[in-house]
Each structure stands twice: as C-alpha cells, then as structure tokens.
C-alpha cells in the first residue's frame, strides 16, 4: 500500500481534529462514562471524517479503504479509547454491510445521515448466550405481512444507549445456522426496545448497552440485501471492523511508545535517565519493531481488501497481532513509568485498561486463531 500525500493530509486533519475536539474533553467524558455522540459526530461529519471510504452519492469522500485505515491509525492520537471505538462503530462496524448490500432507499435513509453525523448507529450481533459463536445467536425476526417482528436480547452494544439505529443480526428462519440470518436496520425509537447501560473496566467514555427487543415491528424494506445472507454479510463486515481494530491499535501503541521515550528521557534514577538503561531502550526498540511489523501487515491486508482479494487471512492476523501487541506495549510501559504508570491519570494506565478490549471485542484472539488455522488447513477435520 502506497502512502500518498493525500493519505498524509487526511491523517494530519484527523490528528488536528482529535487534538481540538476530543482530547480537551476526555477527562470529563471518562468521568461521565459517556460522551455526547450526536454533537461530536456532527462535527466529524462536517469535517468529512465519517464517510472517507463511502460513495460521494451518500456524502462520503469516495476514497478507498486504505485512506480509512490511515485515518483510523491517526485516531490513535485520542487520549482515551472509548471515543475512537464509538467512531469506529459508526464508520467501520455498523455501516459497511449497509453501504455494500443495502438498497438505495435504505442508504438514503440511514447511511447518508450516519456519514453526515446526523445520526448515531450501533451494531447488534453479540448476545448474552452468543459472542464468539455468532451462528448460535437466538434473536428472531419473523415476517408478519410487510413487517419483521423482532424478539431477543443483544449484549455489549457500543453506542447502544445513544444510537438512533441498529444494524441487527437476527434469525429470519429455522434453516441451517449459516443460512437463516439476516441483517436488518432497526430504528431505535421503535416501540418495544429497552436499553440498560453496562459498567466496564475501561473504555469508560464509550457507552455500552444491553438491548431488549420485545415484539419490535420494523418494515420489511429495512432488510439489508437478501434474506438469509446476514451471516455472510456480517463475516464480510467483520473484515472492515478487524482492520479498524488493527489500525487503531497501531496508532495508539506507536504514540504510547513515543510518549514513554519522552517520559523516560526526563525521569532520572541512579544519576541517569531511565531511558539510558539498556534493558529499557532495547525493550522499547523491540516494541517499535513489532509496531512497524504490524503496520506492514495491516497495510498489506488493507491493500488486498481494496484490490478485491479475500483479505480474511491477513485481516485476522492483523487483528490478532494488534490486540496482543497492545497488551505487550501497555504492560511494558506501565512498568517503565513506575508509580506514575499505575496512576489513573497516566496515558499508559488509561490504555492498559482501554486496550485490553482489543483481544476480546470483534472476535477474541482465539477466534482469530481458529480462522487463521482454518485457512491454513490445520484445524482438525471435525471442526472445519
Ligand atoms: C466493551 C465491549 C464492546 C463491545 N461492542 C460490541 C458491539 O458494539 N456489538 C456487538 O455485537 N458486540 C460487541 N461486543 C461483544 C464482543 O464482540 C464479544 O465480547 C466477543 O465477541 C466475545 O464474545 P463473548 O464475550 O460472548 O465471549 P465468549 O464467546 O463467551 O468467549 C469467552 C472467551 O473464550 C475464549 N474462546 C472463545 N472461543 C474459543 C475457541 N473456539 N477456542 C478457544 N477459546 C475460545 C476467548 O478467549 C473468549 O474471550 C463488545 C464487547 C465489549 C466487552
């Protein structure tokens, strides 16, 4: 993937936006355990940052996914993980299937306002009894005349408390589990929906909700693409989600290593900078090498995706590697910052908490390993 001056300009404008519109408010939003998604998304929409890879017809910039990846990496400038996560849900998790497979009418109604920052979206896949095993989800959407009637519960839904609409994965028939699902856009003000907030160890500024659907009636035209294709569409949508995760981890870990170097250069112990200890600068050099390797992998996966090749293997590897590297970098940095690393206010402890999600959300490390193993042909036959 070639980085052009346009990629660099875009990354600069994302970083400038984050410094002006996000970072000054992080402390308050973390304490409030929510941020004003509608206000911030409107500002991002006005700055053309929510539809980088989407069609100009719906207000996007019409650029390819490599630009979105570089912009997400630049979101690593954010001094918390919660806000970038919420933005990532809007740009790379609840909208790709709508953009790729939705009808023109549905895109006009839901994608266009999402790109403009006039609505907040969420993605409803996980349930209390089904996370890693997506195929086993229980929520149903049953045809009744021209409508679907939805019943079930969704769990861990980012933006769930504030969302105007949900891209929901539900069973629309009793058939085989990979062929009985559909993605449906559900307006969140429809009668029968209840939301409760979930408290978490990190990502505090991002609101996470449990959503309850009790005889929720939505028009049949809110179906994305074809009925029964939802599992396939969601697996494709996960590729963009996983590339988002790799890119955000990349930008964040890179910044944390840079800030750690600055801190350790200033911090003195035993008559010298902490950075002058070989055990420390060697470890940081090693981590930076790992970050560069992740950058190469993520960019290669993005380039494959853009060229129309199946990027599942490389995107899964990038997601896996990025979650593990986030844990390694934050653990090492907390150690090197000493007591300051343990203080809530420090950036390294912030991402020690926030970054832990990277190995769980959007497919846990073990799910990535099983996808990679399957594509390598090394899974035992009975589980293939
Ligand atoms: C803060 C947060 C935000 C989230 N946002 C969203 C969202 O917006 N929308 C959404 O739909 N979901 C969301 N999720 C859900 C997330 O995608 C799931 O938590 C994740 O997929 C794991 O599912 P689970 O929690 O049910 O864990 P489980 O499926 O119960 O798995 C638990 C653990 O078991 C291990 N495991 C799983 N499968 C295997 C295997 N085959 N072999 C070996 N070990 C295995 C893994 O270590 C895994 O972490 C969010 C989660 C969190 C915590």
What does the model show?
The structure is a single chain. This protein is an alpha+beta fold and 384 residues long. The relative contact order is 0.11. A hairpin with a 2-residue loop joins strand 2 and strand 3. It has helices spanning 5-22, 26-32, 37-46, 65-74, 82-93, 96-101, 104-116, 230-266, 278-306, 312-337, 339-342, 347-354, 365-376, and strands at residues 121-124, 140-144, 147-158, 165-171, 181-187, 193-197, 208-219, 268-269, 272-273. The two termini are 32 Å apart. Bound molecules: flavin-adenine dinucleotide. Residues 89, 122-126, 131-132, 156-158, 200, 203, 208, 357, 360-364, 366-367, 370 line the site of flavin-adenine dinucleotide. Flavin-adenine dinucleotide binds at residues 89, 122-126, 131-132, 156-158, 200, 203, 208, 357, 360-364, 366-367, 370.
Please outline the helices and strands:
Blueprint lengths: L4 H18 L3 H7 L4 H10 L18 H10 L7 H12 L2 H6 L2 H13 L4 E4 L15 E5 L2 E12 L6 E7 L9 E7 L5 E5 L10 E12 L10 H37 L1 E2 L2 E2 L4 H29 L5 H26 L1 H4 L4 H8 L10 H12 L8
Parallel strand pairs: 1-4
Antiparallel strand pairs: 2-3, 3-7, 4-5, 6-7, 8-9
Helix pairs in contact: 1-4, 4-8, 5-8, 8-9, 8-10, 9-10, 10-12, 10-13
The structure holds flavin-adenine dinucleotide.
GO cellular component, one term: cytoplasm
Protein name: Acyl-CoA dehydrogenase
Catalytic activity: a 2,3-saturated acyl-CoA + A = a 2,3-dehydroacyl-CoA + AH2
């Amino acid at each position: 993937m070639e980085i052009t001056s346009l990629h660099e300009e875009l990354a600069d404008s994302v970083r400038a936006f984050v410094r002006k519109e996000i970072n000054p408010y992080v402390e308050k939003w973390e304490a409030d355990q929510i941020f004003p998604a509608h206000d911030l998304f409107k500002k991002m929409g006005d700055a053309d940052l929510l539809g980088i890879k989407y069609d100009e017809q719906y207000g996007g910039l019409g650029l390819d996914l490599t630009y979105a990846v570089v912009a997400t990496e630049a979101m690593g400038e954010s001094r918390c993980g919660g806000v970038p996560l919420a933005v990532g849900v809007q740009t790379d998790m609840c909208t790709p299937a709508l953009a790729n497979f939705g009808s023109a009418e549905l895109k006009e109604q839901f994608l266009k306002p999402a790109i403009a920052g006039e609505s907040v979206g969420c993605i409803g896949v996980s349930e209390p009894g089904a996370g890693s095993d997506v195929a086993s989800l229980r929520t149903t959407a049953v045809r009744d005349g021209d409508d679907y009637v939805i019943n079930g519960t969704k769990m861990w839904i980012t933006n769930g408390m504030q969302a105007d609409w949900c891209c929901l994965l539900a069973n629309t028939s009793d058939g085989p589990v990979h062929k009985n699902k559909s993605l449906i856009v559900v307006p969140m003000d429809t009668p029968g929906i209840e939301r409760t907030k979930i408290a978490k160890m990190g990502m505090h500024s991002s609101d996470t909700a449990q959503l309850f659907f009790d005889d929720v009636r939505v028009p049949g035209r809110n179906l994305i693409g074809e009925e029964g294709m939802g599992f396939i569409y969601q697996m494709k949508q996960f590729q963009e989600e996983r590339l988002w995760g790799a890119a955000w981890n990349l930008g964040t870990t890179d910044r944390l290593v840079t800030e750690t170097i600055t801190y350790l250069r200033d911090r003195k112990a035993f008559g010298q900078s902490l950075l002058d200890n070989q055990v420390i600068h060697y470890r940081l050099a090693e981590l930076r090498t790992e970050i560069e390797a992740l950058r190469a992998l993520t960019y290669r996966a993005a380039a494959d995706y853009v060229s129309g090749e199946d990027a599942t293997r490389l995107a899964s590897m990038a997601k896996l590697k990025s979650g593990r590297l986030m844990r390694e970098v934050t653990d090492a940095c907390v150690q090197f910052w000493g007591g300051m690393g343990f203080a809530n206010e420090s950036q390294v402890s912030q991402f020690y908490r926030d970054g832990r999600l990277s190995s769980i959300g959007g497919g846990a490390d073990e799910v990535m390993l099983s996808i990679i193993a399957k594509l390598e042909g090394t899974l035992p036959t009975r589980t293939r």
